[in-house]
Amino acid sequence: MSIGVHRRLRFSSTAWIRLSLLLCWPLLASITAKAQSVALQFQSAPARTALLELYTSEGCSSCPSAEIWLSGLQDSPRLWRDFAPVAFHVDYWNYLGWRDAWSDAAFSDRQRAFAQLWHSENVYTPEFAINGQEWHPWFSGKNGPQSDGGKVGVLTVTSTDTNRWQANFAPEKPVAGRYEIHAVLLAGGIVSDVQAGENQGRRLHHDFVVVKLVAIGLAAHDGVAEGKFILAAPRHTMGKTLALVVWVTPPGELVPLQATGGWLVPPAKKQL
After folding, report:
1. Does residue 55 contact residue 90 with C-beta atoms inside 8 Å?
2. pTM, to two decimals
3. How many CA atoms lie within 13 A of 220 on its CB side?
């Protein structure tokens, strides 16, 4: 589905309270206690880990098939090594009668910024992007994209409490200047019973859903960019999994240089 001109809906006060509670609670006590004893670290290889973005909506009848494919990547041997997936729920389909609880105007704005970069007149869902480029052959393989093999540098993020993180980016060719870190908290295992709009009567399943996004600047010293960010993890996400994805860009740019990520609360092991 595509859309050119649209209007945005305002969240009700109840919705804002729910969203605030969702995003501000600390992570489960058991996970935090474990992290405090052993530092949690996610690190890329020198070769590029692709940032795989899906723009989707519960109000879009074409989106469930793309989300089913994305959910299947939980079992991919390439996950977190060759690619890091994120699902941004846009808000511009909310006017059809169903407000997507995971949608955010900032995510719609990000997609529009990509459309402008690609000289595209419209935005649409479902839409995939990989490393800042529109990506169409998502349905052709069950294991997701492979790394392009380009050596860009090592991105490392470390935490002892899953809330406060240290980020370091050592580019393959050290340069002076600044970088930006973008970090998202992902929730999965989410089930939503849609009661209106194009998907009325359907039960939808979501994984890798972006529930929080932060961005901070990194200062380069001796060829390595360093910085800290806070990404308070929620106690309740209406889901069963949590993951972190982080990527680095030049200041003010959309296209990622490198990405990394991993599970904070992994999927339950399947019974044999």
Report:
1. yes
2. 0.85
3. 18
